[in-house]
Amino acid sequence: MTASRSAAPSVDRLAPWAFAAFVEANTHDTAYRPPVVDGPVGPTIVRNGRELVNFASISFLDLERHLPVRRHFAEGARTHGLSTSGSRMTQGICRPHRVLEETIARHTGKERAISFATGLLANIGFVHAMSSSAHFDTGIGVRNHDTVFVVDRDVHWSIWKGLQGLRYGRHVHAFRHNDVADLARVLDRIRGAGRGGKTVVIAESIYSADGTMGPIVEILDACDRYGAVSMIDDANGFMVYGPANRPYAREAAAIRERADFVMVSLSKAIGLEGGALAGPASAVDAFELLSGTSMFTAAIQPPTAHAADRTIAALADDPGIVDGYLAHAARLRRRMHEAGTPTTPTDSYMLSVPIGSDAAALQMREWFVGDGYLVPVFSYPAVPRNQALLRLFPHEGHTEEQLDGFLDTLLGYRRRLGV
Ligand SMILES: Cc1ncc(COP(=O)(O)O)c(C=O)c1O
User: Fold this and answer.
1) What's the 386 CA to ligand 1 centre distance in angstroms?
2) How far, in Å, from the CA of 142 to the mean position of ligand 1?
3) Residue nearest to atom 10 of ligand 1 (CA)
4) In ligand 1, which atom is closest to the CA atom of 155?
5) According to DSSP H, which parts of 318-419 are helical?
6) 265, 268, 269, 289 from 312: Cα distances, Å
7) How many angstroms separate the CA atoms of 319 and 312, rounded?
8) Are residues 262 and 232 in contact, defined by beta-carbon separation less than 8 angstroms?
9) Cα of 219 to ligand 1 centre, how many Å?
10) What tens-digit pLDDT sequence spans the chain (419 residues)?
C-alpha cells in the first residue's frame, strides 16, 4: 500500500475533530507550524534560514559564556549513558538524578526533591498525587479525593491540566490574580462549608504572562491562618531570586523557609530541560508512586541531570552571573520607560509590554520578523481578548546595538499603529 492511499481513510475518520478547519482558519503563519531553527539558540537565532535578534529565549543567561555546560553534558553522557533505560521504581534512578535531587532540595530549603522529565509533568504530578486515592495489595492506601485546591487563576496551564478532572466549585477554586483578599474570601467560604480539612493553595513566583511576582508572603500568611498546605511554582524564579541584593529577596526567603512544596523548572535560568518538586520527605517519597508522571514516563536524560547539577552549583558559587543579567534586564526596562514605553509593574527580568489590541500586537509580531527581531506576543486566549502583550526575555548576550535597534523599531511601530 502506498503512503498516500493509507493516509486518505484516516483523514476522513478525523473529520469530526475539525483539525483541518482549525488550521485553515489560522491566519498567522507561524502559530501552528513551528519555524525550523538551525544552530544553537542564543541572543540571535536562525529561523527558517534568517537570523533574528532573539527576545523569545527562556534560557536567558548565556551560560556557555561562563561555564563549560556542553563539556559537563558530554562528561555526563560518557559516564552515565544517554538514557535511564527504565522506570525509577523498577530499575532505579541514575546517580546524576540522585545528586541533582539532593542539590535541588538543598537550594529550595526542603527535605527532599523528586525530578521529572519537565516542569510541566512535575505540576501535573503534584496535583494528581495530592488528590489521589490508591490501594495496594498489602492493604496500604491513601484516600485523598476530598482534597480542595485553591489556585491563582493565572497559574500555568499544567496546574489547570492537573485539576481538569476535579469538580470546579467543590474541589477546585480560583482566586483573582495576585489578590490575597480574594484568596482569604475563598478560604473562608471553604471553611464555612466544612470542607477545609485538606486544602492546597497553589501560586507562582514569577508569572509567565505579566512577569509579576506573586504576593508570596501574604499568601503563605493566609495558608497559615487557614491551615492550608502551600505549593509555589517557582519555575521562573529558581536560582534567580534569593540573595539580599536582588529584587524579591523577601519573597524568595519565604518560598525557601515557609512554603510546604516548591516546583522548579530546569528550562529557564538553568538553560536545560527537566523539573522537580521539593517538599517534606514523606510526601515526596509518596509522590514516586502517586504522581504518575514520575513512574509512567521517562526521566530527565542522565547527561542533562548531570549538567543541571553542575550549572546550579556554578550559579550558586558565582552570584555575579545572575547579578550581571538582572542589571542588564533592569537597564533595558529603564530605557523602555525613558522612551515612553510602559511595561507591566514588576521588577522581574521579564518585560511585558501591554499593547491592547490583539490585531495590533499580531501585526507588530509580523513586522518585527520582517525587520530582524523575534518578539513573542501573548494574545487571546493566552491573555483576555484585546489585552495583548509583547513578552520579552532580555538575553544576557544582547549587545547595546541590538537593544537600541529593537527600541527604535518598537517606537516606530507604536507611532504607526497609534498604540
Ligand atoms: C510558571 C511555569 N510553570 C511551569 C512551566 C513548565 O516548565 P517546563 O518548561 O520545565 O515544563 C513553565 C514554563 O513555561 C512556567 O512558566
Assistant:
1) 24
2) 28
3) 119
4) 1
5) 320-338, 358-371, 400-417
6) 12, 12, 9, 27
7) 11
8) yes
9) 21
10) 444 445 566 768 888 888 888 777 765 554 567 889 999 999 999 999 999 999 999 999 989 889 999 999 999 999 999 999 988 988 899 999 999 999 999 999 999 999 999 999 999 999 999 999 988 777 788 999 999 999 999 999 999 999 999 999 999 999 999 999 999 999 999 999 998 789 999 999 999 989 999 999 999 999 999 999 999 999 999 999 999 999 999 999 999 999 999 999 999 999 999 999 999 999 999 999 999 999 999 999 999 999 999 999 999 999 999 999 999 999 999 999 999 999 999 999 999 999 999 999 999 999 999 999 999 999 988 888 999 999 999 999 999 999 999 999 999 999 999 98
The CATH number for 69-314, chosen from 3.20.20.140, 1.10.10.10, 3.40.640.10, 3.30.1490.20, is 3.40.640.10
Residue from 120, 216, 273, 277 whose mutation best tests the ligand 1 pocket (most atoms within 8 A of CB): 120
Cβ–ligand 1 distance for 214 under 6 Å, the answer no
**CA terminus-to-terminus distance, the chain:** 56
- Alpha-carbon gap, residue 353 to 293, rounded angstroms: 35
SS3 209: coil
Residue nearest to atom 12 of ligand 1 (CA): 235
The CATH 3.40.640.10 portion of the chain extends over 69-314
Ligand 1 contact, 119 CB (< 6 A):
yes
**Where would I find the beta strands (DSSP E) of 2-147?**
37-38, 44-47, 50-54, 112-116, 133-135, 141-143
Q: Is 118 in the pocket of ligand 1 (CB under 6 A)?
A: yes
293 lines ligand 1 (CB under 6 A): no
Q: What are phi and psi of 349, to 5 degrees?
A: -80, -10
Whole-angstrom CA distances from 117 to 59, 97, 399 are 17, 11, 33
Sheet holding 50-54, edge to edge: 37-38, 44-47, 50-54, 373-374
C-alpha separations of 36 from 41, 48, 97 in Å:
12, 5, 31
Angle of helix 358-371 relative to helix 400-417, nearest 10 degrees?
140
